[in-house]
């Protein structure tokens, strides 16, 4: 976790991030930005959020992504992790409550760092 937050890179694709201010992804993305991360919204609506252009899928992002932060339910998370591997991301982060042990194993086997069932907005301040 520490490695991803400190050295994992500064471009975070946040899957499930929309302009809905009441969703957790919206607040977490704001925290990531405050800590110097570039947040790229990934949502079927491809909305601009926090000043960053959105994309409908990870494959649509035309530049490298360091970390894929996953705010979809556990049933869908494994497919997102597989997409993260396919686009060459360095790490995958499954948010609180997002758990898929098989996706975790596949992602790690592909050489990516992986965190599951944690929130970077909680963990970043703990690192100081």
Any key phrases for this structure?
128 residues; alpha/beta; 38% helix; globular
Q: What's the count of strands?
A: 5
Rounded to the nearest angstrom, the radius of gyration is 13 Å
Structural class: alpha/beta
**How much of the residues is beta strand, in percent?**
15-25%
Mean pLDDT: 95
Helix content: 25-40%
**How many angstroms does the end-to-end distance come to?**
14 Å
Which geometry do the CA atoms define?
globular
Give the biggest sheet. 5 strands, parallel
Widest sheet: strand ordering: 2-1-3-4-5
What's the total helix number?
Answer: 5
Low-confidence stretches: none
> What's the order of the H and E elements?
HEHEEHEHEH
List the helices and strands and how they pair.
Elements lengths: L1 H6 L3 E5 L8 H11 L3 E5 L24 E4 L3 H14 L3 E4 L6 H9 L3 E3 L4 H8 L1
Parallel strand pairs: 1-2, 1-3, 3-4, 4-5
Helix pairs in contact: 3-4
Task: Describe the protein.
This protein is α/β, with parallel strands linked by helices. The chain is 38% helix and 16% strand. The chain contains 5 helices and 5 strands; from the N terminus they run αβαββαβαβα. The protein has helices at residues 2-7, 24-34, 74-87, 101-109, 120-127, and strands spanning 11-15, 38-42, 67-70, 91-94, 113-115. Strands 2-1-3-4-5 form a 5-stranded parallel sheet, sandwiched between helices. Strand 4 (91-94), helix 4 (101-109) and strand 5 (113-115) form a beta-alpha-beta unit. Helix 3 (74-87) packs parallel to helix 4. The longest helix has 14 residues, at 74-87. The radius of gyration is 13 Å and the shape is globular. It starts with a helix and ends with a helix. 36% of the residues are buried.
